Predict the 3D structure of the following.
Amino acid sequence: MKPNDKLLKKTGESTEIMEDGKNKESSRQAVTFNIGKEEYAIDIMLVIEIIKSARITPVPLSLDFVKGVVNLRGKVVPVVDLKKKFSITFQENPKEVRFIVVEIEKKIIGFQVDKVKEVISIPLSSIDPAPSIISGISQNYIEGVGRIDGRLIILLNIEKLLSEKELEKLSV
Amino acid sequence: MNDSIMNNDMLQDFLEEAKEMIEVLNHGILTLEQSGGGNIDIVNEIFRSAHTLKGMSGMMGFTNMNHLTHTMENALDKVRNGEMILNTDQIDVLFECLDELNDMLADIINESGDSNVDTQETLEKLKDMLNSPKPETKSKFETPVPSKPKTIQKAEFPVSTSKEEKINQTDAEYLNQLMIPDEVLNLFKKYDVEKLHNLILNDYNIYYFKVLLDKDFCKKNISLIEFYKKLESSVEIILSSCITDSIPDIDAIDLKNYDMQIVFVIASKQTKKEFFKKTGIDSNKIFEIFETFENEQLQIQDNSKDEEEIFFELTFDGEFITPEIIKSFKEESVEHIHEFNECLLKIEKNPDNFNPELINAMFRAMHTMKGLANMFSLKPISEFAHKLENSIDAVRNGKIKMTESLVELLLKNCDSLGAAVQELVETNKITKINNKVLHELLNLINSNEKPESALSTEKPHKIIKNPFYYGFSEEDIKKFETAITNKNNIYEITFFYKQDLSENINNFDIIKTKIELFGEIAALMFDIDEIIGLDYFNPANFDLPIKLYYISQENISTISMLTDKSAENIRKLDETDVKNFRESYSKYVSDKNSTSLSSKIKRPKPVRKQELENHIKKEGNKSETNTKETTISIKESHSKIKREQNEELRRRENSGEQTPIMEQTKSSSPEQNKQQLNSLVKSGVSAVEKSNPDRAAKRESEKKTGINDSKEIQTKPATSSGLAQGNTTVRVDIEKLDALMNLVGELLIAKTQVEQIGLNFDENISENKSKLKFVTEQLGRVTNDIQEAIMKTRMVPIGTVFNRFPRVVRDIAKARNKKVNLIIKGEETELDKTVIEEIGDPMVHLIRNALDHGIEEPEKRIAAGKSETGTLTLNAFHEGNHIIIEIADDGAGINPKIIRKKSLEKGLLTIEESNMIPDAEIIKFIFKPGFSTAEVITDISGRGVGMDVVKSNISKINGIVDIQTNVGAGTTFTIKLPLTLAIINSLLVKVGEQIFATPLAAVIESLKIKAADIGSIEGKYEIIKLRDGVIPILRLNSQFKIQSKENKDKLFIVVIGLAEEKYAIVVDDLLGQQEIVIKSLNHKIVSTPGIAGATILGDGQVVLILDISTLISNAKKNR
């Protein structure tokens, strides 16, 4: 019910995706990416675009996981380093670093990830509820864990990641 | 009144007009006071403004404001007539009224409804004013009361100021005599009747007409307010109102042609023709004059001049009427009479079952006839036609039945009219119109109408404002009752129907069909509650609320999903609601029956509903035509419901038959509905799309035209939030827009040139290179011009702020017993709207200070050898990219010694510091919060808040305040403001690796220093000595915790000033000056104190803009 609810809210673009039949109620389409060694996924409906490189202007006094702001076709968009946010240490390959630009609560924000993999359809049946702790990431941010061909994909609830509550907690 | 309904544009218009009027009033009353209260021109001017304000507020339904302005108008009328001369106290009362009006406006902006400012006290004062004894000398302005004998007794209308607003029996009868229809009669208030009566006594002609909101205004793009003003300037408006009664009686709701009627009753000494000429209102173009009551007509009615022969000659009246026009008039008249005749004959053949269209055709024919006759001042004919038209109207409205005898009479009358026209055609003269038959006809109609008019005088408001009548028919209520007994849910779903129906119609149609699958739409109607308010009608953006009553077993969340969330409101009705419906209905029926209008409501409701649906269907068809081929071809593969709908569609295509879709849905079995719903709930919209491919296709076509649900949802809150802020619009001079248009044209030309170069760039590189250079230059020039032009559209003359100060100065000067002459210069200087909004408050404080502390009492001034009257000068002018506002007084000036003493007393600085600070600097301490030199706190100043407000407001808009003062000679405050806020000039500086933009408005100077130049106080605070001053140092690297590569020999400081403070920012490098567009850092996670926003440089790099005021306050905190 919940994913459907979300889809219902979407604009015309989303209905098109539904019409071409790939995304039945039985599965979810998601973009998968790597942070460190783990594979993560976010709902494709949230993603606006994925960009390769960007010149980041650091913002002084901002939270440590905020990399700064970039120019996205005339818009100033903040960029969050997910690796820092999840306190993961990993030497990424700079050539593979991507920024996933998403829209959350009508605001556009970019997430830096170590590598973007693919767009996949995860059957709902293969999604398990989140275990209590995955490598330091709070359970709150995780919608579930999908298993496809032996791969373990963590479905992130990216909206919660930057919710007011979270930010308040941090600023205190 | 619902916020979202109340139309924003209309309200904006009203607010702007009202503000203007209040300003005029303000100015007028001030001048009146100065000129000793006797200037009749000014009195007239303020009277007009009060009158306009009254009219507008009445039209908008703000009764409180209406009442106040009306009383003001009464008072001013007395002044105008020389019955009263205003003294200072009375002028004060008038000012009080203005203040209250302003409060009301503020309330309206905030709440978008009628204000509840308490006007009682002011009203009492005004009334006292009215009752004040009349001066002995009669003014020449008093209009002599004519002694013409009239049938109406003057004694019946004592001019009283009684508060009773409803009209009494005698008044109603009187109005009835004027043949003013009951619907309008009900709108009359006591004072309206008095006014009407007086005007008639003074030989005014009374006209009554209706304008149709949509047809006459919206579709012709005419502003109702403009129209009103025009009308007002030439005639006396007795009444203007929106007829609410007409709503429940619209049986055939044709939304496309749905019109809100606004009725005007006006009085004018002009004949109708003159009236049109003068007002420039073309009767054919703008509105239809339905009925007129000219004095002659009244006499005819009262004195039965029936048999009098009328001689009339058609003359060539100046250049306006040419023989050709007369010829065409004759031809047309004959045509119209012929048509009228023909329709009558058709009706006669089948009197019981005639086509209503025939009646309409007759009505039109007579109406045009009347109009034509009026154009040539053929009064006998126009009057005759008018009366015939009235009779037909009565038939049309169902007031009387079309009987054989009526047809007979109409035919006879038509013959006499025809004879008269024939005579005119042949001889250019009319000798006689047979009035006898006409009177028979009128008698017949009057006898039929009598019971209604008799009753309506008794209870005039019942029909209109019965708050309980919902407009349901017997059948509807029965449906509700059955639903309740069957434990079905009833929902009231409210939609808004955009004036432009085509925009919404498909959407609504889809939703309706969708929800019909799971329940029954019991009724569909206008939300009468919303329409009844006078403040409703809005020509620009007519949003009609429609309520859909829906019976279904499903729960409310399902319903809301079904409606695609486009419904404005969904409410579940319970038993009590239905009971209310029932009660109100019975009440309504009994009311209506007793007023002999029962024939109207007996018409079954479903007709209304079906017509609306058919209409909606018709509209929907427009888009369906594109997709209907696919619809039919894939028809086979779908569910039964689908098939039925398609068949229905096809049937209609073939036969043009208009079958309501409701029948179809009813016939489908509940089980299917249930299934359908289950799948829908499971899979959301996609299920609907899948099983209803034609719907999906339709959605497609909708998408193409750019209309979809989400857009609707998004736009709604936007408009309502715009309303809440009240003043978000800018009036732009059309010249500015024209200039902008021209520039855009140039831009397009440049674009084409670039495209052309791009097309064959490789062919002739060298030539194209030079061309490109040229075009680039051109593009650069045009974009700069466009930027400037856009800026200009945001510019508002500062006069709008300055103009409120004369009043402030007057009040304070009076309270302080000072004499002040206010001089205003440079009102036309333009400033950005946002800046204008911020500058008002600080200026009030500065002016108060100048008057309270600056300018001395007259005695002191004389003692000091100055003139008795002090001068306060407000001046505004451009200086580069800045606007300078000066507030100068010739008062006592500010004594630095006193400031020093006070600052020490209040502990704002130590003796040590005090010794270090020069006089010029110490004066700036007046900006410190809590600082006040006043020994006593007065109602005007002394709390030490004002200057703090000045400083903070001005800092907010990147402004700087400066003070120049000479003891004994006066003080000048200089406010330096940036021209605009969206694009600023900035100085780019580098600290470490990072570039920051400093608003140039705040930059005073920048210079190269050595690290050794920086000194310190107490080894803690860094300072730099610059000329004769000491400026504290502000280091960005420490504030922002960033690395800077200190080069001890080559440092730069940027001296910034904000309000009265100066700081020196240490930077590694200066990169230059650049115009930047401010972009907000649109996210919490990157909002940082000290950073105002970001901008994008030419190379695409994002650069942060420094927030000077926060930086300074942070620096102070750290000290």
Observations:
- Chain B touches chain A at residues 561, 682-686, 689, 696, 699, 703, 708, 710, 994, 1040-1042, 1079-1086, 1088-1091, 1093-1094, 1096, 1100-1104 (CB under 8 Å).
